[in-house]
Amino acid sequence: MKKIKVILTATYLAFTLFMMHISEFGFNMYLNNLGSAFLIGLMLLDIRKNVLSILGFWGLWMFSVLHSLGACWLYSFVPYNDWMIYLFDFDFQSFFGFTRNHYDRLVHFSFGLLLLPATRDLVAKKFKFNPVQALFVAFLSIQVFSMVYELFEWSLALTLSEGMAESYNGQQGDMWDAHKDMALALLGSVFTYMFLRKRS
Prior knowledge:
By secondary structure, this protein is mostly helical. It has 10 helices and no strands. The mean pLDDT is 90. The chain is globular and about 45 Å long. α1 packs antiparallel against α3, α3 (34-49) runs antiparallel to α4 (54-72) and α4 (54-72) packs antiparallel against α7 (103-127). The two termini are 21 Å apart. The chain has helices spanning 2-22, 26-32, 34-49, 54-72, 80-88, 92-96, 103-127, 131-159, 162-169, 177-199. Helix content is 81%, strand content 0%.
């Protein structure tokens, strides 16, 4: 299992560096990728400590890839609709009548969906809970992390220039952006909670 983790981490690092190299967004892109450095650190730490199950590590890896892609395009400019038109001849934005870029919504949903197994593994290891207890505490932890991140974004909005804050936060003019992001993280974690609960 360690070999798989090493390969996944190396692949993620190479992917992130490549995306940063081709990005055209300069300093703001580096600011957004601070999270990528943190996620790589988590992977390297787990390779040494071996806390995460393979499911937990895969979830961490998949979320990290989605995050890095968004970070290198400042989230608001990920051209997913252009990609869908090119690959499937399907205009996602027009079909659903969307006027904003929703890639950030996908990542917040994925935060709950993909990181719950890793969070459960960490809780179980740290506090010696049984599987049911660890899963429940991990579910609650996801909601706390989601809220803390939104508070972090709010603090940036207060301290950065208006343009940089908007670029980092990706609100795209939506005053309810933070509430929707937390709701999507909750929804994603509910799906994974139900899946893991049946297995425990």
